From TrEMBL:
Domain Photolyase/cryptochrome alpha/beta, first and last residues per copy: 1-135
InterPro entries: Cry_DASH, Crypto/Photolyase_FAD-like_sf, Crypto/Photolyase_N_sf, Cryptochr/Photolyase_FAD-bd, Cryptochrome/DNA_photolyase_1, DNA_photolyase_N, Rossmann-like_a/b/a_fold
Keywords recorded for this protein, A-Z: Chromophore, FAD, Flavoprotein
Function statement: May have a photoreceptor function.
Keyword Flavoprotein: yes
Name the UniProt record assigns to this protein: Cryptochrome DASH
Cofactors required: FAD; (6R)-5,10-methylene-5,6,7,8-tetrahydrofolate
Cofactor, free-text remark: Binds 1 FAD per subunit.
Entry similarity comment: Belongs to the DNA photolyase class-1 family.
Length: 467
């Protein structure tokens, strides 16, 4: 018996059902990663579908998977090309009996699956799918997917009442890998690392981060109070970076939370991390329920909204040159690091769609290109919500950006970190830099329109509401 294990967004060896089950059936497991060139295509807006930082993180994750497979006696075959061509050819060459793969939900992936499955069928080879991306297993949901509640809280209540998180699968102890198979390599990719602000891909780094966040720094016990922060590494877990490629399993995180609750403390914060992972699950199930509607202009609601398609305005937002410090600092952070806090994402997304009224799908596409933790369901799902075309209209909120800035960056430390031109402005004035008089601009060594952009909208609408 020979099994080809096609890795996609599941780049780990721990809690990997397909890997574990394959190893139980045979020692002849051939792990494979196919680097599909279409993920790098240039989008009509003039930027690539997968940006440099995400590419770098992905490559690191693949290299690390190879290392971890080697440590259990196996290896990772890497090929560059179209999966529907590579997989059937390789399967035939290696005399494969069955192909194992993770089940995905969105159309690019599922259409690919159909093509691969058809081509394999012609060779008499079966393809077996494993659901392994969420905390709660699809088959354990207390409702059919068509009946998934449109309101998150209803989903959460039902799931928490009647469903258990399955246990994790152990790492296989030993596999073998034939010497005569050409393993292949990733293309060279030399992108200068963004020094202190960079995150490294791979299962080892993911597990290291959990060890640090939970056990060394003991940060889980205060997560609920810190999670809305924006500056630094430790206000939130940063697990999304590794969850996106499957370098860490949500069930493993869950087990570690339970262990932490037993050994250290159990409180609202420890629960809240699981609560947030449930949002992640929810968006995946929403994508399964609604299919391609999550990408449509009118969204899941089919609601007609007139969106502006002004490239010039969009470019200012994208480059962090709106003249609104909270927005610009977040967009600069995204550009430099490929990450942005949840608080930041809510604000920049709301600003784009509610204040600038730009097509929400443009914003979602930029996030797709830039975010290292890009997850098709979480990204498009969250954007739908912010744009007010998601499935729960009560989530359709407007953010007063100035109020948000005062609440979440009271001392202006975050904006000053990413926008050094604002360094000398006192905290109480830094978020409304657009209102500085000529004299103040001289005093604080910032000239609007030269050192920092003039605001692209009149920010007084927020100050008035704010008082
Ligand atoms: C417009 C917009 C786009 C987003 N795009 C993505 C995306 O592409 N990929 C992504 O993983 N998250 C996305 N999010 C959700 C959220 O911002 C990130 O998951 C979070 O900031 C990641 O940081 P963390 O791991 O430190 O989060 P923590 O606060 O430590 O949360 C733990 C985990 O819970 C999950 N989670 C938390 N908040 C959300 C949420 N709102 N939706 C779904 N899952 C959540 C994530 O898996 C996260 O890693 C988006 C949010 C918005 C508003």
């Amino acid at each position: 018996m020979k099994i080809l294990l096609w890795f996609r967004n599941d780049l780990r060896v721990h809690d990997h059902e397909a890997l574990f089950k394959a190893s139980q059936q045979t020692s002849q497991v051939f792990p494979l990663y196919v680097l599909d060139p279409s993920i790098f295509q240039e989008l009509a807006m003039g930027f690539p579908k997968t940006g440099n930082l995400r590419t770098q993180f992905l490559f690191e994750s693949i290299e690390n998977l190879r290392k971890n497979l080697q440590s259990i006696g196996s290896n990772l075959i890497v090929r560059v090309g179209y999966p529907e061509e590579i997989i059937p050819t390789l399967a035939k060459e290696l005399l494969i009996d069955e192909v194992f793969v993770s089940e995905e939900v969105t159309s690019e992936e599922t259409e690919m699956d159909t093509l691969v499955e058809l081509a394999l069928k012609l060779e008499g080879i079966k393809m077996k799918f494993f659901w392994q991306s969420t905390l709660y297993h699809l088959d354990d949901l207390p409702m059919e997917i068509e009946n998934l509640p449109n309101i998150f809280t209803q989903f959460r209540n039902q799931v928490e009442k009647s469903t258990k998180v399955r246990s994790t699968f152990p790492i296989p102890q030993h596999l073998s890998f034939p010497e005569n198979v050409e393993v292949g390599a990733l293309p060279k990719f030399d992108f200068p690392r963004a020094s202190q602000h960079s995150y490294k891909g791979g299962e080892d780094e993911a597990l290291k981060r959990l060890e640090e966040y939970f056990w060394q720094k003991d940060l889980l016990k205060t997560y609920k109070e810190t999670r809305n922060g924006m500056l630094g590494l430790d206000y939130s877990s940063k697990f999304s970076l590794w969850l996106a490629n499957g370098c860490i399993s949500p069930r493993y995180i869950y087990e570690q939370v339970k262990k932490y609750e037993l050994e250290r403390t159990q409180n609202e914060s420890t629960y809240w991390l699981i609560f947030e992972l449930l949002w992640r699950d929810y968006f995946r199930f929403v994508a399964l329920k609604y299919g391609n509607k999550i990408f449509f202009e009118k969204g899941i609601q089919g609601k007609a909204v007139v969106w502006k398609k002004d490239k010039r305005v969009f470019e200012k937002w994208r480059m962090g040159e709106t003249g609104i410090p909270l927005i610009d600092a977040n967009m600069k952070e995204l550009l430099a690091t490929g990450f942005m806090s949840n608080r930041g994402r809510q604000n920049v997304a709301s600003f784009l769609v509610k204040d600038l009224q730009i097509d929400w799908r443009w914003g979602a596409s930029w996030f797709e290109s830039q975010l290292i933790d890009y997850d098709v369901c979480s990204n498009w799902g969250n954007w739908l919500y912010v744009a007010g075309v998601g499935n729960d209209p009560r989530e359709n909120r407007y953010f007063n950006i100035l109020k948000q800035a005062h609440n979440y960056d009271e001392k202006g430390e975050y904006v000053k970190f990413w926008l050094p031109a604002l360094a000398n402005i006192p905290a109480e004035k830094v978020h409304s830099v657009a209102l500085l008089t000529q004299e103040e601009q001289r005093k604080f060594s910032v000239q609007l329109g030269i050192d920092y952009p003039k605001a692209m909208i009149d920010i007084r609408k927020w100050s008035i509401k704010n008082k």
